[in-house]
Design goal:
Layout lengths: L21 H18 L46 H12 L22 H11 L1 H9 L5 H14 L21 H7 L4 E6 L8 H10 L5 E4 L11 H10 L4 E6 L5 H14 L3 E5 L21 H14 L15 E6 L6 H14 L3 E6 L6 H10 L7 E6 L5 H10 L7 H13 L2 H16 L7 E4 L8 H8 L16
Parallel strand pairs: 1-2, 1-8, 2-3, 3-4, 4-5, 5-6, 6-7, 7-8
Helix pairs in contact: 3-5, 4-5, 10-11, 11-12, 13-14, 14-15
The protein binds iron/sulfur cluster.
Iron/sulfur cluster binds next to helix 1.
Length: 492
């Protein structure tokens, strides 16, 4: 176990892409000899220790560099249950030390040309640029903040290369007129309903089109998931295109899990040219949830926050990731996932703020089953002063059965089903009206959620029960309920 990290290092160090000169190889060996035992260093060559409370983030089995994924818990990492979530530990230590503000800085994806090489030579070069005299003066001056400014002047240019220029600030979108119908409705103050459709497993699009036609009159937008649970399905952009052809408003979900930096930029340019305007950036479920044989699980080229930063800069600054100027930039409305019940709400709120700073204009939360506990998360978000910068759509899943409720609670990272809801579903199962009870629970939740300050709508995740969505929308939005007692209802 490395001296200063609460994680457990077993992943091997990264290897350099090409053979390096002797002095670079020697420096890399010395760096590994020092940082390996102390921090479990994997020699990523793009060191972030100063930003992560001296805990190496590359202990994260997904290789995330901007914070935890939505599956983070205080107890364990969902990808590798034998170890703690290293990002939970980083947040915990940063909050304890009072240095959590630095976690807001949007950090770049790895420069893989540096992988396996020393990170020290970049620091030495930068220190040389500043000059030994200036560094000593800065570190010894009594003026408040002088020492930290001096340290930052050395490390910031190293961790924030010219082509990235990440920071901790909010960047308001540089356009005023809504670019999508979803954005227009949210701006107009409507209580918006979005619904999710899982893309088909084959090229047969009959059910997909049927679902689009079914939902279109009732919702402002339809989300198309992107390989949920790491199972291959029709691509989200193709489903989005079908939705456009049928006159519906799509939200294209993009999972970082399956994207490289080149692939992401190509895909959003194509999707925007096809008319897709709403894009939801996600880190994506780990391969560990999908069927084998498994692809590489320890490297995600980009994370959701980096995707937001890249897409926002493409749109607002006409820049590709590498800093080149772009002609005719794409237009889109950017969204992100939020997970109120993962790990610790304070930590989640910081992560949501980072997403908003990076470019998220709307959140679609993970499924919520406890409307009262949601207040704590909304309060934490409010404290971070982002409630007026992002539209929030709360995730609601009508439960079709007790089995699904129990599965969600036990197996899906970031979802918490309270005991009383599990009990209601179990009783309903025994008495033979599970679907009616699931519907009733969803309606009760929406009733409570729609009056909460800071909530702008709901996001329905019917998971194969799309036919229930019209009824939920009609009843939840104040229409006369079409049933009086659960047993008299025929549902879905
Ligand atoms: S961030 Fe990279 S260089 Fe720094 S300790 Fe971790 S693996 Fe090593």
């Amino acid at each position: 176990m490395p001296g200063f990290t609460p994680g457990r290092r077993y992943q091997p160090p990264f290897m350099p892409f090409k053979r390096q000169p002797f002095e670079k190889r020697a420096l890399a060996k010395i760096e590994l000899a020092v940082k390996g035992p102390l921090f479990g260093c994997r020699m990523c060559g793009n060191c972030l220790l100063q930003e992560t409370a001296l805990i190496c983030p590359m202990e994260c089995p997904k290789g995330l560099r901007n914070g935890p994924c939505g599956g983070s818990t205080p107890e364990k990492c969902y990808v590798d249950e034998s170890r703690p979530c290293i990002w939970y530990k980083i947040y915990e230590r940063s909050f304890k030390l009072g240095c959590e503000a630095i976690l807001l800085e949007v950090l770049p994806p790895m420069d893989w040309e540096k992988a396996g090489m020393d990170a020290w030579s970049d620091v030495f070069i930068q220190a040389k640029k500043i000059g030994v005299k200036n560094i000593v003066t800065g570190l010894t001056q009594r003026e408040a903040g002088s020492a930290s400014k001096t340290v930052d002047s050395i490390f910031r240019p190293v961790r924030q290369p010219e082509w990235w220029q990440g920071d901790s600030l909010y960047h308001a979108p540089k356009y005023t007129e809504p670019v999508s119908e979803l954005e227009r409705r949210l701006k107009a103050g409507e209580f918006v309903v979005a619904a999710e459709v899982t893309p088909p497993l084959s090229v047969n699009t009959d059910k997909l089109k049927e679902n689009i036609e079914l939902l279109k009159p009732y919702v402002a937008a339809i989300n198309f998931t992107d390989g949920p649970s790491a199972i291959p399905r029709m691509s989200s952009w193709a489903c989005s295109k079908f939705a456009l052809e049928l006159g519906a408003e799509p939200v294209m979900q993009i999972a970082a899990r399956d994207r490289t930096r080149v692939g992401l930029q190509s895909e959003v340019l194509g999707a925007a040219a096809l008319g897709v305007r709403n894009m939801l950036c996600l880190t994506g479920d780990s391969m560990v949830l999908g069927p084998g044989p498994r692809g590489r699980m320890d490297i995600v080229d980009l994370d959701a926050i980096q995707m937001l930063w890249i897409l926002r800069r493409m749109r607002d600054e006409s820049k590709y990731l590498d800093g080149r100027e772009m002609k005719n930039p794409p237009q889109y409305f950017l969204g992100a996932a939020a997970t109120p019940f993962a790990s610790n709400m304070k930590f989640q709120a910081l992560r949501e703020q980072k997403k908003v700073n990076a470019g998220a204009q709307f959140f679609q939360t993970n499924v919520v089953f406890d409307a009262d506990a949601l207040d704590e998360w909304l309060n934490e978000i409010a404290k971070r002063d982002i409630l007026d910068k992002v539209y929030i759509l709360i995730g609601i899943a009508p439960l079709k059965s007790f089995k699904i409720a129990a599965y969600m609670n036990d197996k899906i990272p970031g979802i918490f089903v309270p005991e009383k809801i599990l009990k209601r579903m179990e009783d309903a199962k025994n008495k033979g009206y599970e679907k009616e009870e699931g519907l009733q629970i969803a309606l009760e939740l929406i009733e409570k959620i729609k009056i909460k300050q800071g909530v702008h709508g709901i996001h329905l995740m019917a998971i194969g029960w799309e036919e229930i969505v019209p009824r939920i929308v009609l009843e939840a939005l104040g229409y006369q309920p079409s049933f009086s007692s659960p047993k008299s209802v025929v549902v879905g």
